[in-house]
């Protein structure tokens, strides 16, 4: 009795065609930064962004009012400590308005950085169950920060009206500094988010670094007044902080005043750093993306 041997089925190919193989590999290197996949999953991106906005102040008594109260109370504390106690100059601008505008730009950077760095840990259940481009998560976290920025900006308009302080014509340049701050925060946030999956120490280190960076940036004081207390040979170290340029330009273009001599070079440096940080952050994120579902 003969035993029948089952052979694997063969693919039917047109006559004369040569046998070929298709090897599927995940993208790597700079081509991996193409955002086509994020665009294809734009419905998921919008859904996640809407969820973050809805859950941000859910079950709170004051709700969206916190968006205004938080920077306003912080500006009040800064105005008392740095304006009344330390008596730092505000270049003729009302102290509360000066502090509020500085915090407005800073909160955009710090809020985006905090949201982006925690986006993977906060959605660990989603990452471990289904496939989607992981870059959707950090991009979806920007929506709530921009909404907070817009609401707080409305309060800024009200403060300028109360103090009878007209905006400067340089206000048309504000979108440029906003984009620069977003690029820097996204770049650092992408690196922190990827590292946070494997090393949870990042979640403890980042707030400390952010707090130190806040006092090293022109928020409660102008860069011009800071340079008066820094020896000339060490002033270059102050400008190594890439936030100095856009934060100082944000306030000058909004409230007016003379354009500082150091600001143009600081903005060139900040612009280059924002591009570098975003590219390095995106590359690092995509490089470590493969192990997110296994480690998280």
- Report the average pLDDT across residues: 84
Per DSSP, the total helix count is 15
Secondary-structure class: mainly alpha
Helix percent reads: 55-70%
Overall morphology: globular
Order of helices and strands: HHHHHHHHHHHHHHH
Please report the distance between the alpha carbons of the first and last residues.
57 Å
> How many runs of DSSP E, i.e. beta strands?
0
Low-pLDDT segments, ≥5 res? none
Radius of gyration: 25 Å
Strand content: under 5%
Please outline the major beta sheet: none
Descriptive notes:
With 296 residues, this protein is mostly helical. The chain has 15 helices and no strands. The longest helix is centred in the C-terminal third of the chain and has 26 residues.
Concise overview:
The chain has 296 residues and is an all-alpha fold. Helices cover 64% and strands 0% of the residues. The protein contains 15 helices and no strands.
Feature tags:
mainly alpha, 15 helices, 296 residues
Secondary structure topology:
Layout: H1 36-40, H2 42-56, H3 65-85, H4 95-117, H5 119-122, H6 124-129, H7 136-140, H8 142-162, H9 174-198, H10 202-215, H11 223-227, H12 235-238, H13 244-255, H14 263-288, H15 292-295
Helix pairs in contact: 2-8, 3-4, 4-8, 4-9, 4-10, 4-13, 9-13, 9-14, 13-14
